[in-house]
Design a protein that fits this description.
By secondary structure, the protein is of the alpha+beta class. 36% of the residues lie in helices and 20% in strands. The protein is built from 5 helices and 4 strands. α2 packs across α3. The longest helix has 13 residues.
Length: 146
């Protein structure tokens, strides 16, 4: 059984803010030696607490300034066809199967509103959609609670 202590929580908090920190910088921030930090990180990785390291992409700089969240409700229980359709899309940041009135929640980026409309039209055979365009992001302090 994995035991998470306050030092692990501090370590996860620092990594969630910047996953590129070196072991020595992490150690400096949480007042622990670099080898001890490395050992803790490896332990958290081996137990699957740390699943991977990610990057934050500026889609606007990549020519896709329009971001939206799309609720998709699959038609006729055809989940497999819908997921295959999504697998062909290159502009999906995430897709979650959810509970509630919709089946899926997607985050997507588009170059133009016309491109967003084309996606929505192409999704019609698979799902009913509700689209929420994102105006801005509210930054929050990422919390690690265990």
């Amino acid at each position: 059984m994995l035991k998470i202590d306050d030092i692990d929580r501090l370590l996860l908090h620092e990594l969630s803010n910047d996953s590129r920190l070196s072991m020595s910088e992490l150690g400096r921030r949480i007042n622990l030696s670099a080898p001890s930090v490395g050992e803790r990180v490896r332990r958290l990785e081996s137990f699957g607490v740390i699943k991977g390291y990610t990057i934050d992409i500026d889609h606007e700089l990549l020519g896709r300034p329009i971001q939206c969240l799309i609720e998709a409700t699959v038609k006729n229980g055809n989940y497999e066809a819908f997921t295959q359709f999504l697998g062909q899309q290159s502009n999906v940041s995430f897709c979650y199967r959810i509970s509630g009135s919709a089946c899926y929640m997607l985050k997507m980026q588009f170059a133009t509103f016309a491109e967003a409309e084309q996606f929505i039209d192409a999704a019609i055979p698979y799902a009913q959609t509700v689209t929420h365009f994102i105006f801005s992001e509210v930054k929050t302090q990422q919390q690690v609670s265990l």
